Amino acid sequence: MNKRFFPILIFLGTILALIWFWPSKNFRVVFCDVGQGDAILFSYRNYQILVDGGANNRVLECLNDNIPFWDRNLEMVILTHPDKDHYQGLISVAERYILTYFVWGGLEKKNDNFEKLLAQLSNQNVILIKPNQNDEIAVDKMKIRFYWPDPKWLAEQLSDNQEKMVKVDTSKDYQEYQKGSVLAAFDDNSQMSFNDFSLIFTVSFADFDILMMGDADSRIQPQILKSIDFPDVEVLKVAHHGSRYAFDDDFLASFKAVLAVISVGTNPWGHPHPDLLSQLDQFGLAFLRTDEEGSIKLASDGRVWWREE
Fold this sequence. Notes:
This protein is of the alpha/beta class. The protein has a single domain (24-308), classed as Ribonuclease Z/Hydroxyacylglutathione hydrolase-like (Metallo-beta-lactamase, Chain A, 4-Layer Sandwich), CATH 3.60.15. It has ten helices and 17 strands. The chain has helices at 6-21, 58-66, 84-96, 112-123, 151-160, 173-177, 221-227, 249-253, 274-282, 290-293, and strands spanning 27-31, 40-44, 47-51, 73-78, 98-103, 107-110, 127-129, 136-139, 142-148, 184-187, 200-205, 208-212, 235-237, 259-262, 286-289, 296-300, 305-308. The strands form three sheets. The protein has an eight-stranded mixed β-sheet with strand order 7-5-4-3-2-1-16-17, covered by helices on one side. It has a seven-stranded mixed β-sheet with strand order 8-9-11-12-13-14-15. A hairpin with a 4-residue loop joins strand 16 (296-300) and strand 17 (305-308).
């Protein structure tokens, strides 16, 4: 090939890449296929929100596929709760991307990996946010409203579980940086279950709403319903990867949804459980599974919504 054409080909290739990766004018949601874990990416124009990071580095593949290659900024990362299949992948995310806000419940799991994540946030001077019930946060036109945990319930639980807590070492730089941001730190061997402490919130774009559950399952849902009413939504992220006890009937009856998405991979627990799938069907919920579909992509213009292939 004539060398004179090389610059032209490079130019055309660059233009095609820009067109392919140029941010959509629509709101997009990607339930990333990260195996047995959660990682959900919300995008609007040049703004992104990542909820959880899965248990491995597979979240990076999802981000590479769904964020323009020149964009290395994540406006917000939300950690629903400090279990490995939700936070582990965020270590690699914090190494690859520049984070602005980190939203979490303030509960620390004392192990090397979680402390590495906190140290990376400190090194980037990421702003830490501990939301309260009914708090609202906006990232451009993406609106987030938090429904759980209830502050009174949270205080009672922390008081009842003091024997499982460990002293926070404020001599470490990242702990100094976080002063006032850690509600409690728990020994990694304490067998403390963080599922009930999951942040529950909606992400909304005009009239399109998604309810995010973390791993807050049927054991805590009756308590949740005592303190909050949920709005009707279009999409429900199924709690706890579709475990048998993902949902209480009264909880599902308290609001309407159209589609349920299950973030799940190969696992020894039988997720998603057949009883859960039957329950979703009973409540008229269509469902999609990342272990069967791969990454699941949805989009909305704020009035209607659809699935992207």
